[in-house]
Amino acid sequence: MNWIKETVLPRFKAFVKRDEPEEILWVKCKSCLQMIFHKEFHESNNVCKTCGYHDHLSAKERIEFIFDKDSIENISMPKLNTDPLKFKDKKKYSDRLQEAQNKTKLDDALLVCFGSINNIPLVIACFDFSFMAGSMGRQVGNGLILAAEEAIKRKCSLMVVPSSGGARMQEGIFSLMQMPRTTIAINRLKKAKLPYIVLLANPTTGGVTASFAMLGDIHIAEPGAIIGFAGRRVIEETVKEKLPEDFQTAEYLKSHGMVDLVIPRSEQKQTISNLLKTLTFYKK
Hints:
Elements: H1 2-16, E1 26-28, E2 35-37, H2 38-43, H3 59-66, E3 73-74, H4 93-104, E4 110-117, E5 120-127, H5 138-154, E6 157-161, H6 172-176, H7 178-191, E7 196-200, H8 206-209, E8 218-221, H9 232-239, H10 250-255, E9 261-262, H11 265-280
Parallel strand pairs: 5-6, 6-7, 7-8, 8-9
Antiparallel strand pairs: 1-2, 3-4, 4-5
């Protein structure tokens, strides 16, 4: 029996043993391909210092850098039936949801929090693109409605940070119904005369753009963010014309009056704070 203990068992353990994940030291910029020290990249909120490319931020990371330290209060959403259509393509929708939840540690693609930005109260509803491309299903719609209700209840401003591929196809008509639902929620906020700011992150497309994302009192966008409804190829095939190279970028939309400001992450907190002071006549 010694050969089992000395030969077979060690080989079996080595086969099934999981390697410890290696520490990531360097990150390659998706735009200029520059290698960036991971710690430096994280400290700059995932912005390349060489070319200024703004990479994705998780919802948690974005909320932590915008809000004042120790002011964040998570607003939980009630659970619901996650798969009303029992949808299946290559995988079951329920399996896709479980994978996304394990990957992001979120229940869905939206995180809603209350906090303060330079001591000014604010509710933020922030998308996480890593969760099924930030697609909008019923839970996201419920989160946006809850965020608007919380802002009304707390008599403070609401800021939404969309980063989404649009409606979630696995929920069919239920996902499309979130467009009018979220629009109604924003209208209630406006009737209460509370400011609504939208910070457009890359990308913001589809039904998200066609609803609450373009209803803000002020629209801010991150540099280079893609913002639009249909994709570039679809539009070119429809209008039978070649579109400008910078079409649907934040800068293009600003030059055509669809976006008010294009602001890098390093300036966002102070700019948003100044806007909130102006919109709410905030006084210390």
